[in-house]
Design a protein that fits this description.
The structure is a homotetramer of 112-residue chains. Chain A is mainly α. Chain A is built from 6 helices and no strands. Chain A is globular, with a radius of gyration of 18 Å. At the B-D interface, helix 2 of B face helix 2 of D.
Amino acid sequence: MPSEHTIAALRAFVEARDWDQFHSPENLAKSIAIEASELLECYQWTSTPDQTRVEEELADVVTYCIHLANKLGVDLDEIVMRKLDSTAKKYPVELAKGRMTKYTELHAEDGV
Amino acid sequence: MPSEHTIAALRAFVEARDWDQFHSPENLAKSIAIEASELLECYQWTSTPDQTRVEEELADVVTYCIHLANKLGVDLDEIVMRKLDSTAKKYPVELAKGRMTKYTELHAEDGV
Amino acid sequence: MPSEHTIAALRAFVEARDWDQFHSPENLAKSIAIEASELLECYQWTSTPDQTRVEEELADVVTYCIHLANKLGVDLDEIVMRKLDSTAKKYPVELAKGRMTKYTELHAEDGV
Amino acid sequence: MPSEHTIAALRAFVEARDWDQFHSPENLAKSIAIEASELLECYQWTSTPDQTRVEEELADVVTYCIHLANKLGVDLDEIVMRKLDSTAKKYPVELAKGRMTKYTELHAEDGV
């Protein structure tokens, strides 16, 4: 993930504009945070924002995530699946079911 | 994007924990912003952070992006490609090449 | 704002640890965003978080704002009041009363 | 902090527009994060942005911090000073001098 086609299109876009020089991992991390906040802005005063605007802002976040993954040489599917494994261990079904307690407190609460 | 396997695994994870009730689009948008900031935190005082930590934080951002895309019923590849088209128009190669000027100023600067 | 006492205490804290070298405006801007997200995290899954935790995270945001204001050589009261003047013009009472419409759409909507 | 004058002006601004209904602590926390990201955006591609723009974005962050402090019934100077006390304990001068190591690792590293 994403598709080879999407990755290639994003690379070509950056290359044509000679923007790779600006895409340091740090700048991309800032950009992800900035776009994530623009996505949040859709929900600043309402919980039912315009769907088109939400899709555009979500696309911006993911676009920079793809750029950063390329820079780091990692595959997004792979790191998402790896993180899911470790999260699943932190939040075992029997303890986490139906509640959003942070894992550090989850175990303490239950005397585990 | 992401792969069917990843989407299925994330859905099963949420379902097993009965967490769908917490995953309103608004809460997911907040979560994306929060995780994006944790990714940024890797770069708070250094431009060369630990790669493993960066991968984990990036994975968290993308995980919530996938959850939100599912909620909205959109495909990430599709919205990324659609946004790329509109960004390409805002930043034509001949004007944007080699510089990071916001598109609103890009055209003004060049008298376009 | 803040009080002379607070400003002096923050300066002494940084000086004693020789941390001024890390406090570039850019690093402080990142830090403000990171701490703002930790504040947001209090509200990630609930609208009634623990007050003590909220106070601590808000304090972190403001602390870095004070550091940045010092770096920039500006007084927070002054820039807040100046910005309030310009915001008041963008959101005239008769148009903005009782609704959170962005000022760019506020005027369009009303045919102003 | 801030001055009584600033607090009164912000309150009057909100009251005149009947915006208090939108200023839930959660919405204010989102707003602080959103404005903090706009401040960060000044530094997205450069470390020397326009000072006026930086001042305006910083003012927005602090404005929402003042609104939230009012909502919570806390004094910003007080919570900043209280947090400084606890941070000073986490980062003792002899361990933290000249380096930005997180306090959890600071002590471990030094065998304390």
